[in-house]
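Q: Got a minute? One more chain.
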Amino acid sequence: MADMIKRITASITSHRHVQIQDMTSNYIKSVLYGFLASGLLLGIYFVILTLVSGWGFAQDQFFQFSYFIVSLALGFGIQIGLYV
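A: Always. Here it is, folded:
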């Protein structure tokens, strides 16, 4: 009987450990995808604006409207992270 209890306890402990690892890896994956999405959006912004108007204009626009652009990119990254 004691041996059976030890096996059940070991099974429950290992099952919890697997669930915690899965949850941690999903969390890390979501955060990573969110940061990548934000960076990708900022990269696309700079590429398009540089091709259309030049690098100086892209920098000026970014510094002038950085609070809008960064918050938009962060919001997009959060949405992607939640979706993943």
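A: The mean pLDDT is 86.
Q: Perfect, thanks.
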